[in-house]
């Protein structure tokens, strides 16, 4: 299958242009009334803008590389069962409840793989106009500034970001982890949580995530020296839902120790 | 006791100047290493900057009105046992864990009362450079823009902001409230939570708060048509700790119905 006609640095520049256009489109359109529908349950929201933005990304990707396959949240992409050749994973608007109710703290995310190898990833905090972008060979930047691996902390010196629902119902020992942390936060967006982790504002982030929720975060975290694993001992599957823990190394060790110890009781 | 030599509109202009100076001071000083100490427990942090900023506010207030009494978080104010005459309530830096670990999502808050009557209140999101300010006679503004009372929603259509600790340990039926809400968030700062409530981004905020944590929020919420009550049926005491619920009217009714019903089971 076709490689892209441009290298990863050129691709990064191009995708940043796409995202700037998408950002301006979202901020203009959000002033109009949104059409809001529910998906799997009353809290799983989708708007007309989620769908339109996904179609805009897909058109740009297919124009760049008609052979690319696209795994995307709102279903306008392809049926993707493997990572052979060029594959894009897209979340047009992540944190849709924040988007709908707050017009703040939502993200737009893209990740690009070739034959399963990460080539680049992008997470945009739309309102703050911040994009964290990069990959394994090119490092990670926040807009134009190079990011460094955050300073290591232990769990009890770290703020951990959680999925609200799974914390509330105490799945995966989340309440136990929260008690051992210095503090915890619930932001309502995986993209915003990954950005805070990458900046070192949080020491870890855990949630049950679909590929479009975690692909860009996984690529950027690993590129910056942070760890991404499953919390339930299942193999990490890039093409399905996972209990993702992304964190600094020491936080990962502390949480794994805590959850392994507790499950043996 | 002495009234101020200026009216509330002039006072508002003056305090906004103070806050702009404080903001620039904090953003400059935060680049230096902080001296961090713990207070009541390992998660109750105070820094040298909390203390310095409080002293800066107190010097400005005493210069304006030497008769003013000051109730403040870090203890440089006065012993205040009533609201007679001119009284200021100050939280120099609210959300100290966010301040220390994230350098983001912390607030600075002031409220001014005369003989128990609110005259003005100010909450500044330091990093975003946003100040919500106003009072019962002058309305509420976000920086220079007049704010309107947020559109009413029911609890199950609202995002509620909680104190992380009390939610985690399920005090005051918080987990029950969170389950009935559309969604919930934990931000780690009362000031940031009040701003989101005032903007309509959240439908309610509840936490156990000291006077300096809730005084400015209470004044601004009530001035904008939002409700502030206790959640545990105790009389609201401006001079001590309260289980505060600040919310839109319908959210207040829904939560009171829920917590009364549940406590009768």
Structural description of this entry:
2 copies of one chain form a homodimer. The first copy, chain A, has 265 residues and is of the alpha+beta class. Chain A has 2 domains: 139 residues, Fructose-1,6-Bisphosphatase, Chain A, domain 1, CATH 3.30.540; 110 residues, D-Maltodextrin-Binding Protein, domain 2. In chain A, 37% of the residues lie in helices and 27% in strands. Chain A has 8 helices and 14 strands. In chain A, strands 3-4-5-6-7-8-9 form a 7-stranded mixed beta sheet, sandwiched between helices. In chain A, strands 11-10-12-14-13 form a 5-stranded mixed beta sheet, with helices on both faces. In chain A, strand 7 and strand 8 form a beta hairpin. The longest helix of chain A has 22 residues. The radius of gyration of chain A is 18 Å and the shape is globular. Chain A starts with 7 loop residues before the first helix and ends with a helix. The mean pLDDT of chain A is 94.
